[in-house]
Structures are given as structure tokens and as C-alpha cells.
Design a protein that fits this description.
This protein is an alpha/beta fold. The protein folds into five domains: 3-126, 2-Layer Sandwich (N Utilization Substance Protein A, Chain:P, domain 4); 132-196, OB fold (Dihydrolipoamide Acetyltransferase, E2P), CATH 2.40.50.140; 201-274, K homology (KH) domain (GMP Synthetase, Chain A, domain 3, 2-Layer Sandwich), CATH 3.30.300.20; 277-397, K homology (KH) domain (GMP Synthetase, Chain A, domain 3), CATH 3.30.300.20; 409-446. The chain is built from 17 helices and 15 strands. The strands form four sheets. A five-stranded mixed β-barrel has the order 5-6-7-9-8. A hairpin with a 3-residue loop joins strand 10 and strand 11 (231-238). Helix 2 runs antiparallel to helix 4, helix 5 (200-210) crosses helix 8 (255-263) and helix 9 (278-285) runs antiparallel to helix 11 (321-330).
């Protein structure tokens, strides 16, 4: 076997490059070198001879009577010297030794070969990692640049961007780290693998590694919401009645979930049971808080959650973390009220419902104009009321009558409040006036006393009797 053939086979094996692709690259490199030495007009053919294990180059010339271009033409007499059967207009091939190409042409061929091999290798790496998107890759922290950490994966490098890192997680060169492949980009320097440690799907892949029931599909992860590095919620369901989805993910004495927690540097994970009933699902998602009742608005995809007064802090969580993660997990808006506060709002809302029905105007129109209680309507002027969408003067009269019927004493109470406020204001004004009068009287008395003292004081040089 020739040295060239051995080299082709070895490179193909070591770098995983297709052998035919290597041969095509060699042929193209030699073709480029010939064109560089003899010009583009030369008609040549380059082929790899498998039996001899070497590159063969043939130049072709047309047989003519009078040669004008020696590169592409040959005289009939010269052609007959090579082949007695040669005739005019025949195309004859002549072998061209690769060694005759010269040092510059050979260097050019070498550069072409290296570049083509590099391109082929990068294409192979790109295809390999493109097929591995959504998988976990492991590598060693190599260096840091302005965009994030560069991880050496062996055959290529991966980028862990700043916004895909777990906050407050620190790395140093030489650390082994694993991350979730989210994208593979084609760059001039080679394939750029982008990885993440904060992506929700990274947690799913970790559970697949640790929990056989998740890996085989018996337990299905229905959703993940994360506050990376701090807390996460994972919704699960079981396809087998005999398999507890929460127990399967937690493991004996928490052995399975602890492995995931350790990989995520202590991130707290709540495993909740998924339910097709959004109210039940929300109740599970807001655990460990105890929920009293949930009102569902399917059109707005919003939930009103009521909990005991002493459960409010648990339901909301530190800095709103619990309710934020639950809302992200459900994909619904969540408003949380205590039972006492909900009772107050419900009583006020009930009265507003009746007022809105009398006026035949939607409650959202009242709320949109800033009227949320009956008291706010009673205190409003007719001009203020007309700012409500759909309101008319006749409807204002109907509302006034309705309020008097629903809460007959409310006008009297408000009148008493206004009277008390007015009386207090008048008392304050009168007090201020009295103080001003007294101050004026004191000032007058002081002036009179001063004048008296001046009149009784003897002039300079006068004796006092």
C-alpha cells in the first residue's frame, strides 16, 4: 500500500472524515495547484488511482494543423509520434507528473487540503452536536470571555452565556461542569455549541437520569418553573395507577431528588401533582400553603385564590417567589387574598353588582372609571359619574334611587360625616380667628402701656418730685 493511501485511511479513521470526501479534497487540491502553475485554460483531469494508491493528472490537447495555443493544442505530427492512429480534431490525454508542479504549487495544494479537511471536520462536528440539542454535555471550564464561560467538550468548545448561568454560581479554570445544549451555531472558527444551566428543560433531563420511571415514560413531567439556584416547581403525573409520581421522583429518603439538588447547587425543588382541573392544579402548585377556595376565570385565564390569614405569607412566599413560580407553572394569572380581605371585597362587590345591574352597565366600566365601592359613587358628582362608559343622566338618577333603597342610611351617615368635618373645619377657623383677635388686643394694650410710660418719664435734666 502506498504512503498516500495509508495516510488517507489513517486520517479518515482518526478524525472521522469520510474517505471519499478526503479523496475529493486531494483531487481538488491538485487541480488547484495545476491551474496555479499552468493557468486556468489548461484542460486537465485529476483522479485517484486506487490500485496504485496515487493521484494521476492528465492534460488534454486538441490535434490541429497549425498550433496557436501550445497549452491546449498539439500538431498532427507530434500527435502521431504519440499515437500513430491520431487524427485531426482528436482530443489526446498526456500524463502530467505531480512532482513537476513545483514548490509553490505544492504548498498551495497542501493549504487547500488542510482547509478542506478542517471544513469537513467542522461540518461533522456541527452535525453531531446539532443532533444532540436538548441533551446534557459535560466538559471542563477552559476560559472566560465577555460573553460567558468557554467549556472544552473535547472535539469542540461550548459557550455558557452569562444569562444561562445559575446566579451566584462560581467557576474556575479546570472545573468539570455539565450543562444543557440549547443551540448549535455555525461560526467562522467552527461550530459554536451554546449550553445552559438555568433552562427548565435541564431539570427535566436531570430527572430522566436519576428517575427510571421518568426515563421510561411511566412518570411524565408536565411542567417546570425555576428561579435558578433558589427554588423550582416540577409538575408530574403517572401513567400507572400503582406508581406514585411524587414518590418516584423523590426516591427512598430523598435519594433521587437530592442528586438533582446537588447538581443544581442546592436549588430547592417542590414536586407537585399535575391535574387537568386548573383549580386543583393551582392548589397543588401553591403548596405548602393551605388554600380555602379558588375562583376560576377561564376567559381571562386568571385565578382568585383565598387562603386563611395565617397562610398568606406561605402562599406568597419570600419576595413573592412561591406564587410567581406557581403562576409560571400554570401559565395563569394568580391573585391571592386572605379570607378577611376577601370577605370585605366580596361584600363591597355584591353591592356594586346590584348597582351595575340597575344601570345596565358592566362592573368593569365602573372599575375602569375608578368607582369600586358604593361610597365612592355616593360622594361623586353627576359630572364624575358621566365619565363611566355607558352612563347617562337618567341612569344616574336610577342609581341614586337604588342606593337609597339598598342602603337607606348611607346618605345620612355620609351627611353626618360631612357635617362633622365641616364643623371641625369651622371650629378650627373660629379658633384661629379668636387667637388673631386676642393677639391684636394684647398688642393694643402693650402699645397703650408704652405710651403711658413715655408720658410719665421726666425729661432729661428735670427732677422728679
Amino acid at each position: 500500500m502506498s504512503e498516500l493511501k495509508k495516510a488517507i485511511d489513517q486520517i479518515s479513521k482518526d478524525r472521522g472524515i469520510d474517505r471519499d470526501l478526503l479523496i475529493d479534497t486531494l483531487e481538488e487540491a491538485v487541480r488547484s495547484a495545476v491551474a496555479r502553475k499552468y493557468g486556468e485554460t489548461m484542460d486537465i483531469e485529476v483522479a485517484f488511482n486506487e490500485e496504485l494508491g496515487e493521484i494521476e493528472v492528465f492534460e488534454f490537447k486538441v490535434v490541429v494543423d497549425d498550433v496557436h495555443d501550445p497549452i491546449s493544442e498539439i500538431s498532427l505530427d507530434d500527435a502521431i509520434d504519440h499515437d500513430p492512429k491520431a487524427q485531426l480534431d482528436d482530443e489526446m490525454g498526456f500524463p502530467l507528473k505531480v512532482e513537476d508542479l513545483g514548490r509553490i504549487a505544492a504548498q498551495s495544494a497542501k493549504q487547500v487540503i488542510i482547509q478542506r479537511m478542517r471544513d469537513a471536520e467542522q461540518e461533522i462536528i456541527f452535525e453531531e452536536y446539532r443532533d444532540r440539542v436538548s441533551e446534557i454535555a459535560s466538559g471542563i471550564i477552559q476560559r472566560r470571555d465577555r460573553t460567558g464561560w468557554i467549556i472544552n467538550l473535547g472535539r469542540t468548545e461550548a459557550l455558557l452565556p452569562k444569562d444561562e448561568q445559575i446566579p451566584r454560581e462560581r467557576y474556575k479554570r479546570g472545573d468539570r461542569v455539565q450543562a444543557y445544549i440549547i443551540d448549535v451555531l455555525k461560526e467562522s472558527r467552527g461550530p459554536q455549541v451554546v449550553v445552559s444551566r438555568s433552562h427548565p428543560d435541564y431539570m427535566i433531563e436531570l430527572f430522566k437520569r436519576e428517575v427510571p420511571e421518568v426515563a421510561d415514560g411511566t412518570v411524565k413531567i408536565m411542567g417546570v418553573s425555576r428561579d435558578p439556584g433558589l427554588r423550582a416547581k416540577v409538575a408530574v403525573m403517572s401513567r400507572d395507577r400503582d406508581v406514585d409520581p411524587v414518590g418516584a421522583c423523590v426516591g427512598i429518603r430523598g435519594s433521587r431528588i437530592q442528586n438533582v439538588v446537588q447538581e443544581l447547587k442546592g436549588e430547592r425543588i417542590d414536586i407537585v401533582v399535575w391535574s387537568p382541573d386548573i383549580a386543583m392544579y393551582a392548589q397543588h402548585a401553591l403548596s405548602p400553603a393551605v388554600i380555602s377556595r379558588i375562583t376560576v376565570d377561564e376567559e381571562e385565564e386568571a385565578l382568585e385564590v383565598v387562603c386563611p390569614d395565617d397562610q398568606l405569607s406561605l402562599a406568597i412566599g419570600r419576595k413573592g417567589q412561591n406564587v410567581k413560580l406557581a403562576a409560571k407553572l400554570l401559565g395563569w394569572k394568580i391573585d391571592i387574598f386572605t379570607e378577611s380581605r376577601y370577605g370585605e371585597l366580596n361584600a363591597a362587590r355584591k353591592g356594586m353588582d346590584q348597582i351595575a345591574a340597575v344601570a345596565e352597565i358592566g362592573m368593569e366600566n365602573f372599575f375602569g372609571a375608578g368607582f369600586e365601592t358604593i361610597e365612592s359613587i355616593v360622594k361623586a358628582t353627576d359630572e364624575d359619574m358621566l365619565s363611566i362608559k355607558g352612563m347617562t343622566e337618567s341612569k344616574i338618577g336610577d342609581i341614586r334611587v337604588a342606593i337609597n333603597m339598598l342602603a337607606p342610611g348611607i346618605f345620612d351617615e355620609l351627611a353626618e360625616e360631612w357635617e362633622e368635618e365641616t364643623t371641625e373645619a369651622m371650629d378650627t377657623e373660629m379658633t384661629e380667628e379668636v387667637v388673631e383677635v386676642e393677639a391684636e388686643e394684647v398688642e393694643e394694650v402693650a402699645e397703650e402701656a408704652t405710651e403711658t410710660e413715655e408720658s410719665e418719664t421726666p425729661a432729661e435734666g428735670e427732677e422728679t418730685k
